[in-house]
């Protein structure tokens, strides 16, 4: 697979512009829209779902199909609650929250301190944060009264009940990460998938977190999707496997057309490390405006924390027998984790561009263009018969079928309205190529291919087009 780079757009994207385009064109809508919405929930529309599927399919092909050492899993969202006791989530998966006694708003204490005082308190204890809060006596961000409570830890797992009666039913959690299922099924996979350390288990799925902080569009959601790998290695090879995964994650970003310019790798300090981690780096992305650098992906060395706790809690032997070394051990686990929604968000931010162009009459107008990499763009091409005339539409539909057959890609078809306006629509939704069928096509059996990024046009015979498109999106 070649790693073609998309032309670098100038950074005109703002979260507001991208969110507006997403709603206008059917990428992402506010959740429960006709009921006034529900904070931090968003729904992917006809184009958004295609972008998201392309991201997930490409990820799966890259890390599962193209490798011999990673196998897939699709586990239940609901698991035995003991899983979350053993993993440490019941005791420790919490955020420090403060409430306003006057207006009842709730805020993350660490974010409040970071935003208002510029102090990074990640990894600090609740008591330490409370000392900072007491000293600063900050006003509520909503009502302005200085009536904030002390910070308290608030568990972020959603709970529900199995069984008809809430009181007597089994209390279960909606998973807040996909990772645990990979540890729980590790033994079954070892027994059935003929894998040997080093090997990985990959999963893509929905997870749920009771997030309080306002969301910044699809950056912070209550339910979102993760693409995660648990990569099991010999303990003394964990450090070098970690470095390999830093490189793999960078390569993935390049594959989807994200350049290094707005990406940095940040090492967690000792006090910031999660309860299970020996080393963590965040892949951070420079979001526009006040958001700045924020976590995009994470990479952690989870050591044998999870396997040893599940071994202890379940009583099952989870050691691995290494035939080469003729000994048993608990593997260490390197975990690269990729948020699907944050991936879609940065792809849209990276792709969004505006440029001044002159129309046929010389009038200058703003062209909004989504320069999405053809690999992830929802429509790979649009077929546009110049006019809605049977002799043209017949050729157009034949071409549509031929491209579909060759590439299995999603192709748009649009026969209404003036051609300039149809091009603009395709620019704005990120379709890389427009194929125009005109009256000359009936003689030369060729079409005009218009490139979204530089608006250049070339003529190509209809017979060649399907294979050409296939190469552009490979
Ligand atoms: P943050 O510090 O932003 O809350 P986190 O450190 O809690 O993130 P992880 O637990 O490492 O995140 O989750 C793995 C990945 O899942 C993140 O790198 C991110 O891409 C994604 N992610 C985490 N929380 C959310 C959320 N609320 N909405 C959307 N994606 C998320």
Word description of this protein:
The chain is α+β, with helices and mostly antiparallel strands and 474 residues long. It has three domains: 15-79 and 161-348, Bira Bifunctional Protein, Domain 2 (BirA Bifunctional Protein, domain 2, 2-Layer Sandwich), CATH 3.30.930.10; 94-155, Herpes Virus-1; 379-472, Anticodon-binding domain (Rossmann fold), CATH 3.40.50. The chain is 33% helix and 27% strand. The chain is built from 15 helices and 23 strands. The chain has helices at residues 15-25, 46-65, 82-86, 89-92, 109-117, 126-136, 179-184, 186-192, 238-255, 305-314, 340-351, 390-407, 419-429, 439-444, 465-473, and strands at residues 28-30, 42-44, 70-72, 94-99, 106-108, 152-155, 159-162, 170-173, 199-208, 223-233, 263-267, 279-287, 292-303, 320-322, 327-329, 332-339, 352-358, 364-370, 381-385, 411-413, 433-437, 446-451, 457-461. The strands form seven sheets. Strands 3-9-10-16-13-12-11 form a seven-stranded mixed sheet. A five-stranded mixed sheet has the order 20-19-21-22-23, sandwiched between helices. Helix 2 (46-65) crosses helix 11 (340-351). The protein starts with 14 loop residues before the first helix and ends with a helix. Residues 1-7 have low confidence and may be disordered. Adenosine-5'-triphosphate binds at residues 209, 211, 220-221, 224, 226, 295-298, 337, 339, 341-342. Adenosine-5'-triphosphate binds next to strand 10, strand 13, strand 16 and helix 11.
